[in-house]
Amino acid sequence: MAGNTADDGGFDFIIVGGGTSGLVLANRLTEDPHNSVLVLEAGTDRLKDPKITTPGLLTQLYNDPQYDWSFDTVPQVNLYGKRVSHSRGRVVGGSSAINALALIYPPRSSIDAWELLGNQGWNWDILAPYYRKFYTFNPPSKETAEALNTGYIDISIQGKSGPIQTSFPEFHGPLGKAWPETFKNLKFPLTSDPLSGESSGGFSYLSTISPGNWERSHAGSAYYTHVAERSNLHLLTESLVERILLEKQSSGALAAKGVSFVHNGVQQVQTAKKEVSVTL
User: Fold this and answer.
1) What gap in Å lies between CA 228 and CA 238, rounded to an integer?
2) Which 8-state DSSP code applies to residue 114?
3) Could you report the per-residue pLDDT of 103-150, keeping only the tens digit for each?
4) Backbone CA torsion sign across 32, 33, 37, 41
5) Can you give the pLDDT at residue 173?
6) Which of 18, 48, 84, 101 is deepest in the core (most CB within 10 A)?
7) What confidence tens digit (pLDDT) does each residue in 222-272 have?
């Protein structure tokens, strides 16, 4: 539930960031009614804001401090000192609430490289089931399938019951059809469904848009809205965390025990009985 103050009694878990990963984590943790969770989000709750819900208005979100952290890179030497904009969501739902709504997976080789670097268990075969778990594939109409050449889709590897809704737009122009055909004519045909992790060629990608109302589907609407009334879930917006409170253990290691944050101009401290999670 949303609130204006934190709980002096403490929470089991404190999650810093009510964005894409933070809300997924909060949703899963509060499935257990014995876990109390506090989510601290620096931005505001704009779940019903038409600029977010309407896919065609996404460009109005960028570099607006009400929605976007508006990060820039350092000056790029090879771009004659130019800084490159790096938008990140500053609202409930995080960057999933302001992104370009494209569901595009990395190749298998990129994910497997994580394990090759020494991160055991971080490979495509282990992570792929979770990629399918977070979304639901909604098939296109016959007309759209023909217009966008979606015959490449392998239903067996698509998400079937995840919270995030995906679809193909039911309005399309000549580019959607010409794009994959051009690659095919250049001898670079699409080799398989891109969601397999082993594909090359041109294709039209799925969008994170709910086909029922054609609104953006994101972490806020999919992972928070339907569980917002859980008594063990607390979301505090406009709460900027400034410091993680660390405590030295008998072993000499440091453990996160709470956070210091500013809410409505007031400095507050909140402790966690179990864990503090900082999410991106």
Assistant:
1) 17
2) H
3) 998 999 999 999 999 999 999 999 999 999 999 999 999 999 988 989
4) positive
5) 84
6) 18
7) 999 999 999 999 999 999 999 999 999 999 999 999 999 999 999 999 999
- Tokens representing 219 are 């972490």
CB 184 within 8 A of CB 152: no
Residue with tokens 């709980």: 7
Residue type, 15: I
Question: What does each C-alpha distance from 46 to 19, 38, 185 come to in angstroms?
Answer: 12, 19, 45
How deeply is 183 buried, as exposed, middle or buried, from its count of CB atoms within 10 A (0-12, 13-18, 19+)? middle
Dist CA 30 CA 9 (whole Å): 17
DSSP string, 23-88: HHHHHHHTTSTT--EEEE-SSB--TT-HHHH-GGGGGGTTT-TTTB--EEPPPBGGGTTB--EE--
Which residues does 37 contact at the CB level (< 8 Å), separation at least 6?
11, 12, 13, 14, 15, 26, 29, 30, 232, 233, 234
